[in-house]
Amino acid sequence: MPRSKIAGIGMYVPKNVVTNNDLKKYMDTSDEWIQERTGIKERRYADRTKETTATMGIEAAKIAIERAGITPQDIDFIVFATICPDYYFPGCGVLVQRAMKMKEVGALDVRDQCSGFIYALSTADQFIRTGMYKNILVVASEKHSFGLDFSTRGRNITVIFGDGAGAVVLQPTDDENRGILSTHLHCDGNNAEILAMYNPGTHANYWTNGNKLADFNEAEIGEMFMSHAMIDHAQNFPNMDGPTVFKIAVEKFPEVIMEALNANNYQTSDLRLLIPHQANLRISQFVQKKLRLTDEQVYNNIQKYGNTTAASIPIALCEAYEMGKIKEGDLVCLAAFGSGFTWASALLKW
After folding, report:
1. Rounded to whole angstroms, what are the CA distances from 282 to 37, 51, 161, 167, 285?
2. Over pLDDT 70: what percentage of the chain?
3. Which residues are annotated as catalytic?
4. What is d(CA 202, CA 8) in angstroms, rounded to the nearest whole number?
5. Tens digits of per-residue pLDDT, 177-231?
6. Which of 83, 262, 277, 283 is geometrically suited to a Cys-Cys bond with 336, CB 3.0 to 4.6 A?
7. 1 and 55 in contact (C-beta within 8 Å)?
8. Tens digits of residue pLDDT in 145-173
9. Does domain 3-173 have CATH number 1.10.3720.10?
10. Type and span of the H or E element at 62
11. If DSSP codes are grouped into helix, strand and coil, which group holds residue 61?
12. CATH class for domain 179-190+241-349?
């Protein structure tokens, strides 16, 4: 059974740079406050009308496909990870197929939030290993900026997120020194509501800070999908209990990294590079210290892009590759933790 390898990788970030000081125009915050809590200095925001989640993903895909030495017509399956789709439905995968004039291939959309890229990569890996497909395009793209609360009320979340996209092309390989060694996927829904965007949705409850606030009354049932009451309670914006997320993340991140290493008989000292999902620089630093990794073994770029959720790992992986931090045969670990809660890791030989 062949392994799957990353044959090509690409990334795209919008040109519009938004600094911490820029956010002071909309909310009570400061550069010092944001950097102290997140490590973020700036992020990118997509053009409001000319760029979408799909179009950014397409730009990253073009680079990945070219680097793989193939054309869009060679792609035989698409896996697209995002929490910010262009439309409520259909998903972004079909939009990529249409825009890139591909054959009538299958397209799968993945909704696993910050863990989305690893979940998508794992799914594509299984298709390659079984021989069902030969050239799979995996895209992760996010346009958070259009759905954030630009007020002091929403600053704890808004200051964290940015826009961008990353993509890889997976192909089969018989080379024992290359390819995805294993992937490890987990979830625990017990705390699903403490990091969530509740509406639009099909439930019939108000939520605030992860707790049920009140049932809808009969007069509001007819406008349950999106109502004035939801807007009044800021239910159309993301919600996060930051301290609880941090506490669980710093527990699950090291666990899933070690799971990948142990499954393949490696130690942390064997790692050339760990690329964590760019959730928060403080989380990454905590994990690095706990696993006793050197600065050279961990790659972070949240300082300049913010948290691009599913897109953060392929963006960081692409940058590390372009900077020469990864060479053929190097052991690389990808790890993520996010809403759901979901967490995941992938271990690969570059």
Report:
1. 7, 30, 15, 26, 5
2. 92
3. 114, 277, 307
4. 39
5. 899 999 999 999 998 888 888 877 777 665 555 555 555 555 554 456 666 767 7
6. 277
7. no
8. 999 999 998 899 999 999 999 999 999 99
9. no
10. helix 53-67
11. helix
12. alpha beta
